[in-house]
Amino acid sequence: MLRALLLLMVLVQFAVAQVKVTATANRTILPAGEMVEVTIAVEGAATGVPTPQLSDVTNLDLVGGPSTSTQTSIVNGRVTSQKSYTYFFRAKAAGTAIVGPISLNIKGKPYTTSPLSLTITPTGQKGRTGEREEVFIQVIPDKRQAYVGEQIVLTYKLFFSTTIYAPEFKELPKSTGFWTEEFDMPSQLVPRDEVVDGSNYKSVVIRKVAVFAATAGELTIEPLTAVVQVERRANQRGRSNDPFNDPFFNFGRRREQVEVTCRQLSLDIKPLPEVGRPAGEVAVGNYSITAKLDKVQAATNDAVTLTVQVRGAGNIKMLPSPRVTIPPDFEAFDPKVTDQLKRGPDKISGTKTLEYVLIPRVAGAQAIPAIELPYFDLANEKYGVARTQELTLSVVRGTGSGSAGALPFAGKREVQSVGQDIAYVKNSVGTLAPVGELPHQSMAFWLGLSGPWLILAGVLFAVRRQEQVSRTLSGRRRRILRSVRLELDAADKANQQGKTEVVTRTLENVVRSVAMEWTGLHTATATAQEWEAEWNARGLPSEQWTVLSGALTLSERNRYAGGALSRSDLTDLIAKLRTVTQELEGVQ
Prior knowledge:
This protein is of the alpha+beta class and 588 residues long. It starts with a helix and ends with a helix.
């Protein structure tokens, strides 16, 4: 038994040691734009295998991968293992595509694959006879030749012969030179059975669009690219690293993401015929036109709405505006334009509505000429004109507040007849000025210029004068008398408060101030006798000096000799001194 196990281990070791690396493609001939799978398989090693690096690839676009899988099996005592990396490419252009040698270093030993050479055929050509594609997209136009502005319906169908899931658009086609309108698509795609080149397929319409060429020539619709999940059969003995894609749990099936692209589409766009073509813009398709006013009678300056509707099948959004001629006696505003599209199974139709706001300015019967829309009839390939009836509006002169006080309105026609002869009248004389008189030649100019300086000079003179006056004898004495009266007021207040000493000191100061000023003896050593002699010498009233000297004597006696002046005595002295100051007011 032990010998058998040892022999088995040796055989297993020998089998695992045989490593082989290969690169294969699931197809070697394919049209441009279609997918090809390239698988790098490592036989004899399931672990320690690095991810291959694809650096030398020409004429192929890498769109997915790598998708990895691992397989280990024992058959008749022989152990085999394999690890695979699958890459998804899309062929670029017709010619040859190359996947260069791929080098791997497995457990210290280098391995290199042989290069792959693929043949890329032109778009739309089958890869090889009898080859069956699992999934592909076709774009089917309802016509390949059309006029400028004519509707072309493109139907994108997804064909598949296997189970697919969740198709999604990866890149919508560019349609330079076309105006496009998408058709509504059902939320649930219902497959249909179809036979393509003798093979049975399921098909679903994944996109439907109407295109309108804006210019003539051979225009191109770029390919549409979609991504779908394709269900494929998996090797039952294999084992993937992805547990959610393990064939054991998916009953031998696995999903792969595949990118599919339809072919490029070329369309021949013809210009509109020149014979019989009306001037200006022309609509393409079949249309009818109607027009109406919201009222048949209106007052001047009232708003009236003119509604024009164009119905038909074609490029409603790019439909040129009908030719509307508004009479000159109307004031017209830019129309409000509304488009309503109706997407049928195979055509785009709808209504374009234009609403004009008109204001009649002149009373009378007004007529709006027939409104026209020239178009090119695709069925008969000739031009026609859709036309409305002439519209009439009875306009009366307005009586509302807005028009009662308004001036009579002159219509545009009348204004055009008068033209440039309109003259404007100045309704006020205004202020006249002699021609040629300059500003500096007026008295007001100089008064205005010198006024501020004169005022400033006056103020300075007044201040200086006040200073001079204050320096004169009379000014000084008036100032002293004002000060004396203030002191007497303070003495009277102190007397009422019983402050006798304050009162007597104040009265002494009052007497001394008056005596010094009026006698001219300003020395501190001057005596009462000297003031009296000078007072008399100056011819001043002796009665006033008697009051002053008496007040001084009583005050000094009360302060220094302990006199007993009562409050009434002091009040009497204050009153007498007030009288003296009043009398001295006029003595200079």
